[in-house]
Specification:
It is built from 14 helices and three strands. It has helices spanning 20-40, 42-49, 54-75, 78-98, 125-143, 152-170, 174-190, 195-214, 217-227, 238-250, 275-308, 312-337, 354-371, 376-379; strands at 105-108, 111-116, 122-123. Strands 1-2-3 form a three-stranded antiparallel sheet, covered by helices on one side. Helix 4 packs across helix 5, helix 5 packs antiparallel against helix 12 and helix 12 runs antiparallel to helix 13 (354-371).
Amino acid sequence: MSDFTFQTDRTVGSYVKSDLLFIICTLILWGLGMFMLYVCTPYTGERLFSNRYYFVTRQFVWSFIGFVGLVFFALIPMHSLRRLLPLIVMGTLFLCVVAMLPGIGSERKGAARWIRLGNFGTVQPSEFAKFAVVLFLSNLFSKHADEPKSKQNFQYPFVGLLVFVVVIFLQKDFSTGLFVFFVGSLMFFVAGVLMSWFVPLMLLAIPAIVLMITIEPYRLMRVIAFFHPEEYTLSSGYQKFASQRSITAGGLWGNGFGSGLTEVFKIPEVQTDYIFAGWADAMGLVGVTVFFLLLVFFAVRGYRIAFCAKDSFASYAAFGCVTSILVQSLLNCAVVCGAVPTTGITLPFFSSGGSSLIVTLCMCGFVINASRLGTDDELG
């Protein structure tokens, strides 16, 4: 893998048709996400807002904004996007800082991750940082594509990545910060950076992660509850216990969307991090299998686009976008199934939340744009 490189020696030629299969897969995943909110959130919406379809309605509004972003990133020429990168990167970093300012940011449970938009709701800048970091790293890597093992190709991108991660950590958004660092590290790997420079920093990150977990009692309790779930089924480990019970209740064929999903109603905030439990309850093992098949197809198609794009910037960024959506999906499912400790990572396309959905659709738009830089037989 140390010799792995994208196709960086080819000039950008004429645009071809977008990858239709990738577009269809994106629309199907979005549609399933809307369907699951419709199935799993009526009880929560009625209880909290006296509106059974509160979360579905809001998600449609955010979807409209997200699809505008998808079309924008699908159509904008790559050279124009690269000219906008300083504004995108610095603007995202600025919003991440603003979210921590009293009177502007919205604090929940001790974390300052959101900016309130009046009565419309909030946005979470750290979600946008996922996309901004991918574009930032891809731009620097493509500038030094002919010398991937140079110190310059390592130092500047790493400093930029570290700045974003530190700012996100300061928001007390440990899960997102760690996720951004992980995806960024994978991009360093595929860019061909010498591991002899990067591995020592990865090893130094381990004690830093341990320290970040231990200094916050609720993070430490999540880890303890993960290893001793039987002792915390009514406290720190309740969501894990309830989601596993819901998944088990789904059986092979599921309870169906008209069954009431009584187990799902017992999961706090089921509309966000634990929406996958609702899917498993309603559709059973068959539905779970369908979801993972769609996710695999999405990833395979997306990586084909990344490998075949004629522009190195598009290649790196498409890889980062697909990897971000794929890893986040797998991580969320692992949390819901109890395979890893609880995090605040949402399920792309499925979880209720405007920031996550908008960023996911914008990333898909970029991948669609990158697909137009390949040839028909390469993407066929």
